[in-house]
Amino acid sequence: MDKALRSVLHWWEIMGVDVPEVRPARQRPAAKKQGQQAVKTPDPLPAARAPEIVKSASTLEELHARIRDFDAGEISDHARQAVIYRGNPAARIMIIGEAPGRDEDIQGRPFVGRSGQLLDRILGSIGLSEDTVYITNVVFWRPPNNRNPNPGEITECLPFTQRHIEIINPDIIVLVGAVSFSALTGRTGIMKNRGGWITLPANGRDIPALPIYHPAFLLRQPALKKDTWRDMLSLKARIGTVPDRTG
């Protein structure tokens, strides 16, 4: 199946749309020329190495270095740089979005464009800021032409995201958008799941997580901001129940 078509179908699926099965086109074997050697099987994708690479990262600084040095194929080849985080590494709340866009690729920090400015206002409505949250994405490089990350790219980055959660060890996670929700839960349908608390396992405990709409989606569907306001009130209430670990 064409990569672009596969990416579109995956996006429809995570948004809760019933997607028909599309069978891959049958590839005709290439005719062998006389004396031609067999084609060498390509090396495994970088994702096969990611679980081993992250094991060697015991600190946040080491994890950041592993991400910056990682070969993620097309997306890292086309991106200016890895976009890893902004905010407070000691924060109790971890915000996990989808993938960098143009502004993020330029500045090297997640959520700094229009959608990031809206995210800051959303968080600020309940008294949160860069000082009180740690913000990252499930994919650390801007996909070409600002397309959505495809399943293979998400899979490549997922071991780093999971290790990210283990090292930050937050008390609460906010999953921003359909890609983040699907990548970390294996479930689809952000429309029907936003605002509903779930748990994500890490470090031998279940961390409460709240899926919310992506700010980019809210910019296109401003009438749904009222749902996000309800989600923020739910988040504020949950924060009030979490014991202070510094005490």
Structure overview:
- The longest helix is centred in the middle third of the chain and has 18 residues, at 151-168.
- The radius of gyration is 20 Å and the shape is globular.
- It has helices spanning 3-14, 50-55, 60-69, 74-78, 102-107, 114-124, 151-168, 178-185, 190-193, 215-220, 225-239, and strands at 86-87, 93-97, 133-137, 172-176, 198-202, 205-212.
- Strand 5 (198-202) and strand 6 (205-212) form a beta hairpin.
- The protein has one domain: 3-Layer(aba) Sandwich (Uracil-DNA Glycosylase, subunit E), CATH 3.40.470.10.
- The model is unreliable at 17-47 (pLDDT under 50).
- It has 247 residues and is α/β, with parallel strands linked by helices.
- It has a six-stranded mixed sheet with strand order 1-3-2-4-6-5, sandwiched between helices.
* CATH architectural arrangement: 3-Layer(aba) Sandwich
Task: List segments where confidence is low: pLDDT < 50 over at least 5 consecutive residues.
Answer: 17-47
The chain-level structural class is: alpha/beta
The percent of residues in helical segments reads 40-55%
- Give me the count of strands: 6
Q: Beta-sheet strand percentage?
A: 5-15%
What CATH first level would be assigned?
Answer: Alpha Beta
